[in-house]
Amino acid sequence: MSNQNESYPTQRTPAEREMTNSLAILHRDMTTVMKDVADIKAKTSNTPVSAVLQSQPMALVHAVASVSMEMNVAGSPTMASDAKSVNKTKAYRLLWKHLWDPKFKSKHLAEIQANNGKPRWNMAVNFNQSPNTELTENLVAYLERNFVGAGLRKSDVCDFVYTNFTSRKRAANKSQAKKKSDNACNRRSSRKKEHLKRRKTAYQSKKTAIDDEIKRDCSGLIIEEAMSVGESDDSTLPHVSYSGLCLCRPGWRSGEYNHFITLVDNKVVADLGLNSHQLLSRAFGETIEGSVSDAIVSQFPQWAFRNGP
User: Fold this and answer.
1) Spatial contact of 22 and 29, defined as CB atoms under 8 Å apart
2) Tens-digit pLDDT profile for residues 110-120
3) Strands 281-288 and 244-250
4) Is the pLDDT of residue 305 over 70?
5) How many other β-carbons are positioned within 10 Å of the β-carbon of residue 268?
6) What pLDDT, on the 0 to 100 scale, is given for residue 92?
7) Basic residues: which segments have biased composition (predicted)?
8) Taking the model in full, what pTM does it have?
9) Where does 101-153 have alpha helices with state H?
10) In the beta sheet, which residues pair with residue 247?
11) Which has more confidence, 58 or 70?
12) CA distances from 61 to 20, 27, 34, 48, 55 (A)
């Protein structure tokens, strides 16, 4: 007859086996820490450090044991780091969506109005000046409610806000510089087209007088490809005290062709009369050497070239 009080071994579940392994690891770590504490106490028996270890040795052990259990049971430091990285990305994106977007485009008026109603940085003042200081406080409080305590610190949130300001400030400055550059290019292009038109008109109205002075038929010799290149429209010329246009002449042009263009320009000024002040002062700088375009080679006579086409 079997003994009713006899106990039989039971089958442990996977969770129980995992817990047993974790406790074994914890016990090993605690043993190592206690040995390290004893070694430190022996080496520092006459120092203030010894007093601290003697008064609170178990507190140190509990702290290390807590960290050990968290690492072995709850998860690895890499997982915590990954979670923090994800929250950083979410916080930064949320911050961008919360603020006014200067590049926002939409076909719906309500969406445009909603974007215009969002808070925005004042790029005319520094980050630590009003009203940016007030906006910073509001943004930090806004992000704190959503992310501080979820793997992020308040210092992380403050960094996000400052980085957002500097990046938008940099983009605004770049946008202004590009806008200024584009405006200058548009002015030069517009002025070049207008002056070409004036030259053609002046030549047509004074063709007989100009051809007689040149002693050649100059029809078809005023084309955009043959004109001088403007280097600047806002710099001060070396020999004048006001703003003007500095030009570079193409090296292929002969002296006779340059004389022809000068005669045409004189007629332009004469036709403008009292309105000639609308033209910027023009001065010639260096001569630019380069290949001659096909449009010029096919249309221009031999005398227009300095050394032949």
Assistant:
1) no
2) 999 999 999 99
3) parallel
4) yes
5) 19
6) 76
7) 188-201
8) 0.44
9) 109-116, 132-147
10) 230, 284
11) 58
12) 20, 11, 7, 19, 12
| Tens digits of residue pLDDT in 266-285 | 998 888 888 777 676 777 76
Contacts of 296 (CB under 8 A, 6+ apart): 223, 225, 226, 252, 309
Helix (H, G, I), strand (E, B) or coil at 231: strand
Tokens of 170: 């940099």
Residue 273: both structure tokens together = 């009369």
How many CB atoms sit inside 10 A of residue 76's CB?
11
Closest CA to 160 of 146, 174, 172, 173: 146
CA distance 205 to 272: 13
Q: How many residues does the chain have?
A: 309
Hey, is 137 helix, strand or coil?
A: helix
Mean pLDDT over each residue of the chain, to the nearest integer: 76
Strands (E), the chain: 229-232, 244-250, 281-288
Question: Which pairs with CB-CB distance under 8 Å and at least 24 residues apart come from 259-267?
Answer: 259/214, 260/210, 260/214, 260/218, 260/221, 261/199, 261/222, 261/227, 261/228, 263/210, 263/213, 263/214, 264/199, 264/202, 264/203, 264/210, 264/222, 265/199, 267/202, 267/203, 267/205, 267/206, 267/210
Q: What pLDDT shows up at residue 210?
A: 94
